[in-house]
Amino acid sequence: MDINTLFDVKGKVVLVTGGGRGVGEMIAAGFTANGAKVYISSRDIKVCESTASRLTKQGPGECIAIPADLSKYDECVRLASELEKREKVLHVLVNNSGATWGEELSKYPDTAFTKLMNLNVQRVFTLTQKLIPLISKSKDEGFAGRIINIGSINGVNPPGIETYAYSASKAALHQLSKHLSTRLGPEITVNTLALGPFRSKMMKFTLDNFEDVLADGLPMKKIGSPEDVASACLWLSGKGGQWVTGTVVPIDGGSLVATQAKL
């Protein structure tokens, strides 16, 4: 039992959606730094291509951009088709693309639910559905394919802020992951990371204004670092995570237990 093989992803083919910035970039950087061939996709073409170029230069793995607007069904189909043209197998799919929306209850728009449930849940299902044949081919190498969905602690416990569509969509994503795991095993594992606060575009306003207060309320007294989320993905993608499926794993600095203690 060698620690170097338990977390080894060298040579694996990985797709990280929303990989151009924020948490997606953190995850993509972790895979690339450990020798994987990483595809990243996001709507912002310039950001996506710039991130891919920078991560490839850092190596030793390779990062390749395939920009796509993953809120659209046809774009999910196109991305899956493009990967099938380029690769014989996809070992790991990380569904990270997502959006949030905050508004007081009386003014919360119907369009927020339409947008977030579509991107955060429905299109995760669409892309996963279209890529299952490519991921399933990993069994020919004696490797169970991996699907890692990026959820949130707000999908486990209700947040104190008014992000109704976001928390509802993440709770739905957690349940979708569990349901898929019962259908796709043993060829593919499906797990979710319920993330606490990380430095990302989505969290920028909150951290710019309340980082010290937020961090002080956590048992670990700090915001999540790139290593925290990347290492969790490496664990679930390596041999060490091959018997883990249908789980929601909090990567949150103790956010959930801190919330429970205050209830």
Largest sheet: 7 strands, parallel
Q: Which residue ranges are poorly predicted, with pLDDT under 50 across at least 5 consecutive positions?
A: none
Question: What's the helix count?
Answer: 9
In helices, the fraction of residues equals 40-55%
Question: Looking across the biggest beta sheet, what order are the strands in?
Answer: 3-2-1-4-5-6-7
Distance between the termini: 42 Å
Structural class: alpha/beta
The dominant shape is: globular
Let me know the average pLDDT.
Answer: 94
How large a portion of the residues is in β-strands, by DSSP E? 5-15%
Radius of gyration, taken over Cα atoms and rounded to an integer in Å: 18 Å
Task: Give the ordered list of helices and strands.
Answer: HEHEHEHEHEHEHHEH
Number of strands: 7
Protein name: Beta-ketoacyl reductase
Family: Belongs to the short-chain dehydrogenases/reductases (SDR) family.
Organism: Kwoniella dendrophila CBS 6074
InterPro entries: NAD(P)-bd_dom_sf (IPR036291), Sc_DH/Rdtase_CS (IPR020904), SDR_fam (IPR002347), Sec_Metab_Biosynth_SDR (IPR052178)
Describe this entry's structure for a reader:
The protein is α/β, with parallel strands linked by helices and 263 residues long. Helix content is 48%, strand content 14%. It is built from 9 helices and 7 strands. It has a 7-stranded parallel β-sheet with strand order 3-2-1-4-5-6-7, with helices on both faces. Helix 5 packs parallel to helix 6. The protein is globular and about 50 Å long. The N and C termini lie far apart (42 Å). The mean pLDDT is 94.
